[in-house]
Amino acid sequence: MRYLCWSCLLLVVSLSLSSYASGSEEEYAVWSRVAIQCEACGKAGDVAIEATVNEGAYRSMKITAFGREHVLDGKAAEQLAGFPLSSIRVTHEAGYPRVGGYSVHLRLKRLIYDEKKTLVEERALLTVCEEKPGEVSVLKARKPVKQNPAPTVLKELVYVDMYASGSQHPLMCIEGGDFPGGHEMLFRKTGSKETIHVVFPAGAKLPGILDGSLVLRGHYQGIVKRDRFTMKRPPKDYRYFVVASWEYVK
């Protein structure tokens, strides 16, 4: 079982902020030194971390656990370059005898762009073990960051009564549908004459005026619960528009 150990956190913050631009834009202060004192962490006892950073490079790090001091060597410190002190989290676990027994972990993370200009989350794991006195292991890993695409904007819309128009559209807001309790409408773009099936999720405020001044923001998606259509199945590429926000424009 893993535990997250927190206690008194002493922060000595480097307040080397650059001058503000007009409009007084707020900037984050960069931590240059941190001292963390944890409550007793199982067999590791009292755990403490002291670290200093200068321009992104770790100048020192000392981890006290199991009644011993573990000092990060130069090679390990180089692997932590760029990881902010503010991202440090401390955990501990019973571990396994074959890998060192009871363990204390320091977890750090940061967001960077890799060589392919892809946004990734990089994580570093520092571990000290009961059966490996003085040794600090460092592991690093990366994973792509899932980014929400920019919302699609629909404008110049004309409302169409989906029940009186004679057109047939699969209903999404009925019991068992993708958005039960929601509200759905049809709109037609004035230029292309394209008909758009629009869904307002349950609880969303509905617009009162449905003329060309209405602008919708959201995303298109395919039908999630297709299995409920047993008689007449919608096309596999059928999409509807889920509204995240809307406004009127003149």
What does this structure look like?
With 250 residues, this protein is mainly beta. It folds into 2 domains: 143 residues, no CATH class; 97 residues, OB fold (Dihydrolipoamide Acetyltransferase, E2P) (Beta Barrel), CATH 2.40.50. The chain contains 1 helix and 16 strands. The chain has a 6-stranded mixed beta sheet, with no helix packed on it. Strand 8 and strand 9 form a beta hairpin. About 8% of the residues have low confidence.
Give the topology, please.
Elements: E1 2-4, E2 8-14, E3 30-37, E4 48-54, E5 57-65, E6 68-71, H1 74-79, E7 89-93, E8 103-113, E9 119-129, E10 137-144, E11 152-154, E12 157-160, E13 183-189, E14 195-200, E15 214-222, E16 239-248
Parallel strand pairs: 14-16
Antiparallel strand pairs: 1-7, 2-3, 3-4, 4-5, 5-6, 7-8, 8-9, 9-10, 11-15, 12-13, 13-14, 15-16
Characterize this entry briefly.
The protein contains 1 helix and 16 strands. It is mostly beta strands. It has 2 domains: 2-144, no CATH class; 152-248, OB fold (Dihydrolipoamide Acetyltransferase, E2P), CATH 2.40.50.
> What is the N-to-C order of secondary-structure elements (H for helix, E for strand)?
EEEEEEHEEEEEEEEEE
Relative strand content: 35-45%
Q: Estimate the mean pLDDT confidence.
A: 83
What structural class do you assign from the helix and strand content? mainly beta
Tally the helices: what do you get? 1
Principal-axes shape call:
elongated
Distance from first to last alpha carbon:
59 Å
Strand tally, please? 16
Indicate the low-confidence ranges by residue numbers.
6-25
Overall tally of domains = 2
The major sheet is characterized as: 6 strands, mixed
Strands in their spatial order, largest beta sheet: 11-15-16-14-13-12
User: Taking Cα atoms only, what radius of gyration do you get, to the nearest Å?
Assistant: 28 Å
Helix content: under 10%
